Amino acid sequence: MKLIGVDIGGSHITAAQVNRENLELIAGTYQRDKIDADENAFVIIKAWAKVIKRCADGEKDLQIGIAMPGPFDYENGISLMKNQGKYDNLYQLDVKAMLAEELQLATKQIKFNNDAACFLQGEIFNVGKIAVNSVGVTLGTGLGSAFIRNGKSYDADLWNTPFKESIMEEYISSRWFVAEFYARTGKPIKDVKQLVEEHAGEAITRDLFKDFADNLSQFLSYFIKLKDAECVVLGGNIAKANAFFLADVKQALLKDLGKEIPLYLSALGEEAALIGGASLFR
């Protein structure tokens, strides 16, 4: 029976076969496609299934563990995403049943967990130096949060925690950068990648990352205290731009907490969520 890990993001899907014994990705099986998260439900499900089928290479005896952004009913496979900037057309649909039908599999062959929880689980499996009592944060289209207890990762579900005039996710996500850049310059950008590639040396970029670091450090301080965490693992696409904000975050946390809390950057990148997803069947 082939074990497949899947990571579904706001603009992509990745999948790979995973070795059941050591939870390492199997070479040559990695697949990735861009996804239009504004498409109708049937188009999205077919696009996901297409990538999984390529990864499975004709095999039907499968177990598929999927890292999925929230809000989502992970046990039952029901999407609860609405007004999140992604997958609105899946709202309240039985995603597990739809995907199983498209793949011609039984629903028991598919499991879901929160993408941040899968990310943190994958990192814990592969980076022994991370403390057992850890929290993980994914910084991307949305704000993912997870924590480890007794070796198992759980969704912390803190994206909608009240913060300033709205919620945490509105201040710690790629859409915050997009909205703030436009508000301050009158010019559009697509994402943080474009910001750092095209405006790296500009004052607007320095100002945005300074404000972002302040927002993120306040969130991390709250999260660390909430879970009495010994360390933090940061992942997601925004974390790739850590040179612009990480030093400020560390300094702010030291000042607020009175002690140094290790901040690890993801060692595995996208692989972590794939491994964490696959681990649902271990």
Characteristic terms for this protein:
single chain; 282 residues; alpha/beta; five-stranded mixed sheet; 8 helices; 36% helix; globular
Structural account:
The chain has 282 residues and is α/β, with parallel strands linked by helices. The protein is built from 8 helices and 14 strands. The strands form 4 sheets. It has a 5-stranded mixed sheet. A 5-stranded mixed sheet has the order 10-9-8-13-14, with helices on both faces. The two termini are 13 Å apart. The mean pLDDT is 93.
**Number of beta-strand segments:** 14
Radius of gyration: 19 Å
Strand neighbour order, sheet with most strands: 3-2-1-4-7
| Beta-strand content bin | 15-25%
Low-pLDDT parts are none
What is the general shape?
Answer: globular
- Residues in helix, %: 25-40%
User: With helices defined by DSSP (H or I, 4 residues minimum), what is the helix count?
Assistant: 8
Mean residue pLDDT: 93
Give the end-to-end Cα distance, rounded to a whole number of Å. Answer: 13 Å
Structural class: alpha/beta
Question: Largest beta sheet, briefly?
Answer: 5 strands, mixed
Could you spell the SSE succession in H and E letters?
EEEHEEEHEHEEEEEHHHEHEH
